[in-house]
Amino acid sequence: MKINKGFAVAAVALAVQIAAIGWLVWRYERIVLNGTEVRLKCQAYDPYDPLRGRYLSMTVREDCTNILFDASGQSEYERRNDVFVQLGEIPGSNGLYRVEAVAKEPTDGGLWARPKWVRMEYALGYSDKGKDESYDDFHARREKSGRKAVVSFPDQLFVNEKVAPEAEKLLRERTASAIAVYRVLDGEAVLTDIEIAGKPILSVVKEEKE
């Protein structure tokens, strides 16, 4: 009886795990099939990671000063993941998007997604300090400059381990032409591809081999 009970508990636990994985796969495929395609400029990022080789890592950062809530009390550089960003196509950019607003909840209209994280910073950076300006005067001016949101998006694209090293090398060498391709649906964004000079990165890897 004890053996049967233990088997039943294990079977239920396994079923729950399978269901959870299935739900994640279904959610991902639903966004990929039905979501709006969003393309953002990205750069190569080469961190140390024990899983390196299983995915390509890159960086997508967007700055936005249109913050639709009071961020004055938030510590500088503090990250938060409880906000949404509005994405809009850049006119004449051949399909590139940018972050147009940051809000606690999506407003009516527009394309909204929850990013990986958002970090609040002063609108003025240290590079804006005047040559003869004292640090006290600069900090006072910086305090009055308001805040900007630095937005980060999902940044790992899983690929076949056999081609990952070549794709990673290609991404570093041609990062100036790299574009991260996302699909956005119901406030969620998933990374589906990285383009190099307008072509899927794995296609470029294949061309390089031929």
Counted up, domains total 2
The pLDDT mean sits at 85
Please state roughly what percent of the residues sit in beta strands, choosing from under 5%, 5-15%, 15-25%, 25-35%, 35-45% or over 45%.
Answer: 25-35%
Oligomer: single chain
Radius of gyration: 22 Å
pLDDT < 50 stretches: none
Query: Whole-Å distance between the termini?
Result: 63 Å
**Strands, count:** 14
Structural class: alpha+beta
Shape estimate: globular
Question: How many strands, what sense, and barrel or not for the largest sheet?
Answer: 4 strands, antiparallel
* Order of strands in the sheet with most strands: 1-12-13-14
The helix content is 25-40%
Q: Would you list the SSEs in sequence order as H and E?
A: HEEEEEEEEEHEEHEEEH
By DSSP (H or I, 4+ residues per run), the number of helices equals 4
